[in-house]
């Protein structure tokens, strides 16, 4: 039977139909109903129908309550900021805000207690939407059911600099425009005067400028974040680089993507080669100028100053820059310093992962290189080097040596995978995460309690889909024959060699949800005892753990263990057992995830996050698996990318800690 709710959902509600519905019952406009149990306004917001939203908000028959809640106390603005398609999201949100929607309305506790701003930060990550909500009074200090506010979410999502009100954003933009003009002048001076002394002075000035203007700032009292630039347009000579003069007589090169723009800023002493580089002739017969080892010339200013030409727009405190050392090759291959080129430092933009802590911008670049190596391996030997660095950084030396056959095979498989035109997870960051993940044996503990059969679609059905995707990711570049393990809280299944999503689906298909949620008990008896403790003294004379473990736990409810803290207690016990056997704490790491909207599960995960003594080996996702699956089910490549980030977060925590 036709109803106003489903017509609003489908986008075919008309003014005449609206008049008919409200004439029969005026309360229907604010009452949840239809197949999705939504108010008409919430349904239109969810599906992204701006014409229906405007019709409902401005109709002359019966105006709706713009904050009328649907299930879980979710307002129309909640649905617009979380589920609305991006092409109409901002238009609909603005219409709701103009109509007086409560910008700080929270969903109920069982639903996570999210505000529209939290949705914009954690789900859509729409910067303009974040700004719009803040400008209309959204508070970033409200906490959700897990005690997390929008500021903490922004930190985890790399959106720290977006939680500024309009006045603060305008002030930063004005500052950036001034810096743009200054830097443009600086580059012209550098291009005009081919002098080490002049460049040295300018380098020092620009570094001081970057500090005084706040481009290099202190964050949280212990981390220094290099503020980034959002490059809106590439302009002539924008790629001009401040390479430092060598200590010998060879010519100094400035590379650029527009020869004429650079040449016009120089005298006749400059010539442009066919490669787009401008070379100085004036220094050919000059005495070499010495460079002190401690000179500022050996450390360039932040590259965001170098690239700050007119026409570019600064967006401060976005994903940080990481440091990569490269070699400057002289134009003259026969130069006497061809084999003695100095290393210069180049800042490159990097997209930080979903949850990350900005590392300290130390003068010792090796810290950043170790944690955020931006190299893009191609050959197997390149991957072997990258994997060896991961082994060192993760403290896995007891498991893998430099010539380990497993490392060599992972490197070979990574090379082939990267060259596969049909592969999806092939960005440098994805490949790095895949190689990290391949060093660990993935074990999944699935909740098969009775409540997993609840929901629409059933939680169990969604979990089967997600776990199968996890299997495909975890086995993507592992050596042939390497298997993934799955265990269940209640079902006792024999050991299975799961090497593919099809294998996983067959195992999951034999299990039916039933009984309770004794997660802690199942973790110890079904995973830690057979896979960890039985390989260590006094249970094993050899005392050798075969592989490091990543234990991924998926649950829909609060544990029914007695005591309730048994899961946490067993994680602590595992850490102590490893340390007594001379293994690093990170030899076994844990990832706990919620599926479904159970209030007890959300509270339980919040309690786990607060356990600082195990925070280095335990990661509890802030996102529900069923929600992310619903969000990405039309694009499984995006779901795989999110799951890869999820699985590797506890591994990355080892490095960060």
From TrEMBL:
Matching SMART domains? ANK
- Composition bias (Polar residues) maps to 261-283
Q: Which controlled-vocabulary keywords does the entry list?
A: ANK repeat
Q: Where are the ANK repeats?
A: 72-108, 112-145
Per its UniProt record, what InterPro entries does this chain match? Ankyrin_rpt, Ankyrin_rpt-contain_sf, vWFA_dom_sf
One Pfam match, by short name? Ank_2
Enumerate the PANTHER family for this protein: ANKYRIN REPEAT PROTEIN (AFU_ORTHOLOGUE AFUA_7G06200) (PTHR34706:SF3), SLR1338 PROTEIN (PTHR34706)
Q: What is this protein called?
A: Uncharacterized protein
Which species is this UniProt entry from? Wolfiporia cocos (strain MD-104)
């Amino acid at each position: 039977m036709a109803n106003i709710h489903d017509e609003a959902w489908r986008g075919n509600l008309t003014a005449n139909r609206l008049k008919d519905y409200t004439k029969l019952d005026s309360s229907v406009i604010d009452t949840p109903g239809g197949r999705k149990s939504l108010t008409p306004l919430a349904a239109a917001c969810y599906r992204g129908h701006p014409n229906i939203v405007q019709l409902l908000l401005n109709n002359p028959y019966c105006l709706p309550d713009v904050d009328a809640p649907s299930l879980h106390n979710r307002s129309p603005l909640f649905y617009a900021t979380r589920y609305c398609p991006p092409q109409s999201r901002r238009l609909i949100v603005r219409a709701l805000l103009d109509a007086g929607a409560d910008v700080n309305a929270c969903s109920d506790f069982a639903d996570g207690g999210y505000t529209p701003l939290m949705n914009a930060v954690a789900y859509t990550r729409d910067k303009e939407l974040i700004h719009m909500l803040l400008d209309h009074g959204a508070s970033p200090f409200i906490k959700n059911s897990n005690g997390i506010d929008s500021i903490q979410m922004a930190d985890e999502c790399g959106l720290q600099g977006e939680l500024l009100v309009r006045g603060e954003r305008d002030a930063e933009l004005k500052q950036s425009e001034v810096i743009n003009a200054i830097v443009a002048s600086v580059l012209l001076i550098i291009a005009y005067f081919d002098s080490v002394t002049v460049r040295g002075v300018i380098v020092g000035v620009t570094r001081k400028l970057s500090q005084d203007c706040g481009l290099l700032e202190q964050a949280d009292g212990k981390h220094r974040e290099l503020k980034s630039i959002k490059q809106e347009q590439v302009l002539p000579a924008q790629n001009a680089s401040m390479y430092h003069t060598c200590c010998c007589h060879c010519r100094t090169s400035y590379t650029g993507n527009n020869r004429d723009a650079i040449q016009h800023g120089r005298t006749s002493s400059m010539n442009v080669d066919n490669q787009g580089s401008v070379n100085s002739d004036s220094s050919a017969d000059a005495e070499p100028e010495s460079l002190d080892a401690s000179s500022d010339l050996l450390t360039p200013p932040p590259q965001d100053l170098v690239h700050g030409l007119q026409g570019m727009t600064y967006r401060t405190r976005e994903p940080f820059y990481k440091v990569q050392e490269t070699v400057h090759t002289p134009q003259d291959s026969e130069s006497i310093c061809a084999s003695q080129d100095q290393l210069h430092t180049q800042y490159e933009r990097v997209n930080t992962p979903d949850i990350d802590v900005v590392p300290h911008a130390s003068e010792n670049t090796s810290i950043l290189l170790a944690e955020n190596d931006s190299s893009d391996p191609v050959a197997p030997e390149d991957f072997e080097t990258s994997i060896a660095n991961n082994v060192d950084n993760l403290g896995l030396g007891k498991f893998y040596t430099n010539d380990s056959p497993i490392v060599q095979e992972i490197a070979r498989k990574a090379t082939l995978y990267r060259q596969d035109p049909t592969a999806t997870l092939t960005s440098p960051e994805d490949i790095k995460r895949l190689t990290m993940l391949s060093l660990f044996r993935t074990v999944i503990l699935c909740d098969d309690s009775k409540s997993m059969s609840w929901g629409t679609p059933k939680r169990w059905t969604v979990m089967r889909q997600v776990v199968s995707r996890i299997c495909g990711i975890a086995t993507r570049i592992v050596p042939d024959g390497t298997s993934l393990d799955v265990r269940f809280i209640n079902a006792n299944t024999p050991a299975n060699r799961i090497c593919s999503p099809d294998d996983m689906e067959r195992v999951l298909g034999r299990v039916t949800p039933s009984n309770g949620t004794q997660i802690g008990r199942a973790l110890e008896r079904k995973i830690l005892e057979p896979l960890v403790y039985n390989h260590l003294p006094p249970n094993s004379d050899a005392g050798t753990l075969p592989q490091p473990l990543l234990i991924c736990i998926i649950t829909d409810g609060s544990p029914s263990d007695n005591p309730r803290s048994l899961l946490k207690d067993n994680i602590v016990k595992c850490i102590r057992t490893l340390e007594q056997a001379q293994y690093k704490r990170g030899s076994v790491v844990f990832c706990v995830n919620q599926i479904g909207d159970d209030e007890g599960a959300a509270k339980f995960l919040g309690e786990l996050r607060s356990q600082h003594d195990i925070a280095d080996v335990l990661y509890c996702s802030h996102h529900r698996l069923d929600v992310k699956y619903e969000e990405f089910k039309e694009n499984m490549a995006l779901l795989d990318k999110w799951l890869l980030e999820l699985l590797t977060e506890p591994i990355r925590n080892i490095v960060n800690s």
